[in-house]
Every structure is written in C-alpha cells, then in structure tokens.
Amino acid sequence: MAVTELSFYDRISDALAKPEGQLAIAAGARAKYDNRARAMSEFPNMEFTRDRARRIRAQTLSQLDKFLAEFADNVEALGGHIFWAKDAQECNQYINEIARAKNVQLVAKAKSMLTEEIFLNKSLEDSGIDVVETDLGEFIVQLNNDKPSHIIAPILHMTREDVGNVFKEKLNVPFSDDPATLNAIARAHMREIFLKADMGISGVNFGVSESGAICLVTNEGNGRLISTAPRIHVAVMGMERLVPTLADLSIMLQLLARSATGQKLSVYSNILCGPRRKNEYDGPEELHIVILDNGRSKILGSTLSEILYCIRCGACLNACPVFHSIGGHAYGSVYPGPVGSVLSPLLFGEPWNPLPHASSLCGACKEVCPVDIDLPGLLLKSRSQQILEGKSPLWMRLSQWIYAITSCNPILFRLALRSGQVVSRILANDGWFTTLPGPLQGWSIHRDFPALAKKSFRQLWDKPSQD
Ligand code: SF4
C-alpha cells in the first residue's frame, strides 16, 4: 500500500475539522451498531454460536496448509483454475495476463477490500482496461475519485446530498437526494455494464475446503451478476478466508450478516462451484481463483495471528468511539478501525505504526466481534512490540524512559510531583489547564487537562488531620 503523504496525526486533525462528515460517520456507525445489537439480542444461542465460530477460525488457521491444499484440489476438480500469488504484484500481473490473453475490454467488479489492498483497479486501468465498481457504495466512491471509509459501508462519510451532487456532476442527471431515485439512476447505468463486461472480478467471503466452493455475500445482487454474466470470473481470496465445511459456512453467514448490518442473512449469499458446465445455461466459461498471501503467512506465525480470524463484518468499526470521531479515511488504510489498527502495520509496514495507539482500549470492539478476537489485547501487543523493536517515535521512547526513571526513584518522583503542583497553582485556571505547552498541546486542543491536586494522596494519607 502506498505511503500516505500526511501523517496520521495530520489526517486526524483534518477529519476533526469537518463536522458534517463526522456527524454522518457517527450517525451511520451508530445505526449499524444498534441494528447489530437488536439482531443479536433476538438470536438464540448467540454466545454458543460465537464460540463455535471462533473455534472454526482457530482450527482452520492451525491447519491452513492442509485446508488450502484441499480447497485448491477441489476447485481444480470442478474445472476452476487456482493461482497462488505471493504478493500484490504477482496477483495483479496474473489477472492482467488473463485479461490480455482473452481480449478483455471491460471489467465489472463486486466490492472487495482485498482488491483495494492491492490496487487492482489501477493496475488494470493502466493496461487500458475499463473497470466499473458495481456495488453502489463502491460505484459512488469510484465516480468521486474517493476511497472507501468503511469495510462494509464505503460511503459512510457521505450524506445523501453529497451523493446527489456526485451523480449530477459525473452522470449528468438532475440533482436528487432521494435514495430511491439515486438507486434507480445507478441501476440503469449498471445494467449495461453487466451485459457488456467480459470479465467479472470479486473477492471471496469464504472458500469451502471440502467442496472447492466459494461464497460471495452481497445485498445488491451485483455479486451474482458479475460472477455469472461475464465470460470470465476472477475471484481474489485472502489465504486465510477458508472454512473447512459447508456446515461451518452456515455458522459464519449467520454471524456475518447480523454483525455487519443486523440482518438475519444477507440478501444474496451465493455459493459458486466451478465454472459453467456442459448443458448449463449460465455461469462463466472460466473461473480463476487467486489465493493471495501478501503478508498473511508472516502474520500467521506471529503473536498477532488472531487477527486473521477476522471475517470483515465491520462491527468493531461501528462500536469504536475513535472511529466515530475520526472516520475511516484518517486511518489511511483500506482497513480502518480497531481491526485495521492491528492489521495495517502488519500488512503495510512502518508508516502505519501509529494506528494501534489510536484506541482508548475500552473493549467495545471485542464485545461485538463475532469471532471474539481480543482486539484490545492485540492492540496492546502491537504497541509493546513496536516499543521492544525500537519502532515507536523518539518523543514517546524518551518520555517513557524519563517516566520509568522518575517513578522508580522516590526522590525524583516527589520532586516531579511538587514541581507539578507548583506549576498547577501558577498556571491552571479553576483547576484546569486550557492549553498545554510543546508536544503536550495535542491533549488540550480538543479538551482541558486537569491540574494536579493541591495535595497528593500520599500527602493526605500522611497528615489526614490537617486536611
Ligand atoms: S475484527 Fe471482528 S468485529 Fe472487526 S471486522 Fe473483523 S470480525 Fe468483524
């Protein structure tokens, strides 16, 4: 992933300076959070199912080599092609080669964060191929030359008026902010694309090892159209996105829909087994499944491997107070929110190291995660790993070093405390600092900082009668 020009802290400042965007994000995420809570409260045996889902993910990842081999054999037995891609470049090159060999002019795409991760669209467009996103949110993102801000709801940061303006400007239609009208415009535009596309590209929600089937989940039906109407279907799957059996898939689907949108089941859960066979009327002539590593095998062997349990439901984003305030773009990664804060530094490297620090560790993300990933624990591990490897910023290392020395030495500790009390007495206003000096300013830009108490707990303890 390309290094973003602004630092994480600058992107946060930018996001906080746009109150309308913030309101749209917080309202959208809150609505999804409430829908999930309602759906889960009506779900019998929710905790049992969640526990089972976690065990399925753990079992799959503990024997991933075996399940991947079984999956690949079964896909090939069904007539599909498997390509193992080590990284983004290999994956994009393979898809470009197929497109070139098969004279593909137009690609219709379903929403896939994995293809965003590897900049597949750009790679195809650079080869002169037209690529059209067919998920409504992704279509709007593409029209607006924007980036998705949420893994489930790509335009969470936009209002209806924003969408109306994009359609007016880019599709040359009269302005409307009525969702039904906007949908009808997009649908009319999209119909042609489905009919004309030579190649459909999708991600894979789950691959099923025992049968070689792939499952695509959408609410708009576009996944079904792009995987059946064009003559070639290419599905790009993260190597961790497997379940052993169809029965395991049913557990995942129940949790995915409820966690993502509060639905009992997504509107279209497509289970696709190979390309079109003789005497069948629909389906692609060719099915290619690209199994992409792109850093995942390294994560698998690390202390943060639990993050690979993720089924990309987006619930942790909707629950996160930090995400509510800064939105998805500020993370500068295709994977924002708590899951992205763990995953992005692992996949994309050092520029994303500040992300795990943007968490209050309140635990809301773990509470809603359908596979019970210990996100706060992983965030802490990620932070401590950075510190142990000397990757945290100099100011943080320095301040932690000073804190460690001061707090381990009673004389220095008392001296620091007394100095703080004196400074508080002189500079604080009614018990609060409204601005802090130097690098501490970041705290007081958005809230006041409490002054030190006139007497510390220890001083009160030593001489209770005088107070
Ligand atoms: S970490 Fe859990 S809650 Fe967050 S997207 Fe992944 S599965 Fe959903």
Q: Mind explaining what this structure looks like?
A:
This protein has helices at 8-16, 19-41, 46-62, 64-77, 88-101, 113-117, 120-126, 136-143, 160-171, 179-196, 222-228, 246-261, 296-300, 315-319, 321-326, 337-348, 364-368, 375-388, 394-408, 410-427, 441-444, 457-462, and strands at 81-85, 106-109, 130-133, 199-202, 206-208, 213-218, 232-238, 242-243, 268-272, 286-292, 432-433, 449-450. Among the domains are: 43-294, NagB/RpiA/CoA transferase-like (Rossmann fold), CATH 3.40.50.10420; 394-466, no CATH class. The chain has a 6-stranded parallel sheet with strand order 1-10-7-4-2-3, with helices on both faces. Strands 8-5-6-9 form a 4-stranded mixed sheet. A two-stranded antiparallel sheet has the order 11-12. 51% of the residues lie in helices and 11% in strands. Helix 3 crosses helix 12 (246-261) and helix 19 (394-408) crosses helix 20. With 467 residues, the protein is of the alpha/beta class. The structure holds iron/sulfur cluster (SF4). Residues 259, 310-316, 339, 368-371, 373 line the site of iron/sulfur cluster (SF4).
